[in-house]
């Protein structure tokens, strides 16, 4: 267990937890002693739960469901309250990539799919998470945006960039609206992270533009999310934090 962060007795929700950043975040919170409610569209989330229980000796509940549905967001919070009696942290991580295209060629269905998963799901989750956290005096919500939520990038898709910008705006407004109630809300904005979502992208192009000259890892983001939820970050609220090895500085 971390000598700095101790989440024993705390409860965290993580969406999109079956792989990549969500999986790394789940392990980071479990390492700190938190009990988990993890969800994903993939049933692999159940395998992850077993691995975490064996490795970290914490309690884990799972839900295999579509996070773009409002009922799923409610069910996740209901599980946290029913099984653990509280909700302290939430990492709204689930998301998909887009398909770069000229705006005239962007199908309405593609736009709606990315907006529903990358933006609407975050709203649905926050809508349920805030009341659940207030039952025990507050909590911390972290939303997964992107460097594309801070600056458009040549070659990124219109729908992805739009959704990730909106996640930053949503994050900031929630922070303003609920800060006095004990709710902190921040966003992480990853750069190029080596995950299954980015496996088919041109890594050399990114490496040439990253001052640290390495790709980010899922663990880089997972540990940052954990840090933002800790008391070490107790005065950090409404921030969209780039975690990109300096990419946006170039």
Note the main attributes of this structure.
seven-stranded parallel sheet, 7 helices, SDR family oxidoreductase, alpha/beta, oxidoreductase activity, single chain, 250 residues, 42% helix, Rossmann fold
Assign the CATH class. Alpha Beta
Number of helices: 7
Class from helix and strand fractions: alpha/beta
Question: Uncertain segments of ≥5 residues (pLDDT<50)?
Answer: none
Largest sheet: 7 strands, parallel
- The CATH architecture designation is 3-Layer(aba) Sandwich
Q: What is the string of SSEs from the N terminus onward? A: EHEHEHEHEHEHHE
Pfam families: adh_short_C2
EC number: 1.1.-.-
InterPro entries: NAD(P)-bd_dom_sf (IPR036291), Sc_DH/Rdtase_CS (IPR020904), SDR (IPR050259), SDR_fam (IPR002347)
GO molecular function, one term: oxidoreductase activity
Description:
- By secondary structure, the protein is an alpha/beta fold.
- The protein has one domain: Rossmann fold (3-Layer(aba) Sandwich).
- Helices cover 42% and strands 15% of the residues.
- The protein has a seven-stranded parallel β-sheet with strand order 3-2-1-4-5-6-7, with helices on both faces.
- The model has no long low-confidence stretch (mean pLDDT 95).
């Amino acid at each position: 267990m971390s000598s700095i962060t101790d989440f024993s007795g705390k409860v965290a929700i993580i969406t999109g937890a079956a792989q990549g950043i969500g999986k790394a975040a789940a392990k980071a919170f479990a390492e700190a002693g938190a009990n988990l409610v993890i969800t994903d569209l993939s049933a692999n989330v159940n395998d992850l739960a077993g691995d975490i229980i064996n490795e970290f000796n914490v309690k884990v509940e799972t839900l295999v469901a579509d996070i773009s549905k409002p009922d799923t967001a409610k069910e996740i919070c209901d599980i946290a309250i029913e099984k653990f009696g509280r909700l302290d942290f939430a990492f709204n991580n689930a998301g998909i990539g887009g398909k770069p295209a000229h705006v005239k060629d962007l199908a309405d269905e593609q736009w709606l799919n990315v907006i529903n998963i990358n933006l609407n799901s975050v709203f649905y989750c926050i809508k349920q998470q805030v009341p659940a956290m207030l039952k025990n005096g507050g909590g911390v919500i972290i939303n997964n945006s992107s460097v594309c939520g801070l600056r458009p990038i040549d070659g990124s898709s219109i729908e992805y960039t739009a959704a990730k910008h909106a996640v930053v705006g949503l994050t900031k407004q929630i922070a303003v609206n609920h800060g006095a109630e004990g709710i902190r809300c921040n966003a992480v904005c990853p750069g190029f992270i080596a995950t299954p979502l980015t496996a088919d992208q041109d890594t050399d192009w990114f490496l040439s533009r990253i001052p640290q000259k390495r790709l980010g890892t899922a663990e880089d983001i997972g540990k940052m999310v954990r840090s933002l939820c800790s008391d070490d970050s107790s005065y950090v609220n409404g921030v969209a934090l780039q975690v990109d090895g300096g990419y946006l500085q170039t």
